[in-house]
Amino acid sequence: MAGNSFGTLFRFTTWGESHGPAIGVVVDGCPSLLSLTEADIQPWLDKRRPGQSRYTTQRQEPDQVRILSGVFEGQTTGTPLSLMIENTDQRSKDYSEIASKFRPGHADYTYWKKYGIRDYRGGGRSSARETACRVAAGAVARKVLGDGVTVRGALVQMGPHTVDRSRWDWAEVDNNPFFCPDPQAATEWADYLDGIRKSGSSIGAVVEVVASGLPAGLGDPLYDKLDGDLARAMMTINAVKGVEIGNGFEAATLTGEQNADEMRAGPDGEPEFRSNLAGGILGGISTGQDVVVRFAVKPTSSILTPRQTVDLQGKDTDILTKGRHDPCVGIRAVPVGEAMMACVLADHLLRHRAYARG
After folding, report:
1. Residues 6+ apart with CB under 8 A from 100
2. Rounded to two decimals, what is the model's pTM?
3. For residue 337, what pLDDT band results from cuts at 50, 70 and 90?
C-alpha cells in the first residue's frame, strides 16, 4: 500500500491499524537541536483522545506516546523521529457481525475492491484511529514553527447550526466539549447532539483552522501553492468532503470590488491589508496575514439505524453498526485539522528557508 507519507522536507509516515497492537508515525526532516520530549506531544494527543465526553466515542484509549528514536538528551538529533502509541481498548468482537457486509458510507467496499482483503475491525488502516499519528506529527511541526506561530482550530458548524461570529472567543474553545468559540452555540449544540446520539444517528460539521504569526512568502505560485497543499492535507483527513480557503465558496457570490482585499501603506512602509477574504494566501503564497482554512466533515457512517447494503457474495442485506462511535466525528477532527495545518506550514517554512539560502 502506497500513500502513507505526507510532506516534502518535513515529511511523516504513519503506520498501524485501529485494532492492531499499536499505531505510530515516523517524522523525517525535523531539524536538530529542537527541544522535544513526550510531554511536548502528549497535550495535543489528549485533546484528540476519545472517551472524554458523551459526545464522542467511548473507546477508552490513553494515547500515551513513546519516542523511540530521533531524540537525545531532550533534543532532536536531525534523524528520523519514531513515535508509538499503543492500542489498549480494542473490541474487535463488536465488528464480527459485519465481517462479510459492506458498511454504507465507509471504505469497506472500495478497500476490498482495491486490495482483495479488508480489515473489518473498526476499519483497520482506514479508521480515524490513524489520525492520532498525525496529531503526534503535528506536535513536532509546532516545534519547527516556533512560539511565534499559533495554530488554532474551532468547530464553527454542527449540522445546520452555526456559530455567531460576533460572540467569537478563542478562550471558550477549551471550555466546552465541542471546541466551540461561541458559548451560547455550544450550549445549544449539547441538546441538539444529545438528540442525535440517543436516536442512534450522527451529524456532520464544519471545522475552521487559523494560523497566525506566519511570514509572507511561504508557498509557490503553481503546483506547490500553499493553499493547494493545505487543501490536500485537509482532504486526507477521514470523513472530510470539502475544503475552502478564506471566504471560499462565498467568493462566487461577490463582485470584484467586494472580494478584493484592499491595501494601504503601513507606518513601517509595508502594505497593510484592510480585509482577509483571501485567507492569508494570494497566488499560492502567504501574505503574512492569518491563514484561514475550513473543511466540512460528513456524518459518521457507523450508525445504529439499519441501512441497506450487500455482502461479500453480492447479496442484498441490511446492516447496523454496533460498537462505540462518534455521533459527530467533526468534534475530534479539530485537533487533527490543527495538526495537518502545522505540518504543511512547517514543511513550507523549511522549503522557504532552503530557497532563501540558495
Report:
1. 311, 312, 313
2. 0.93
3. very high
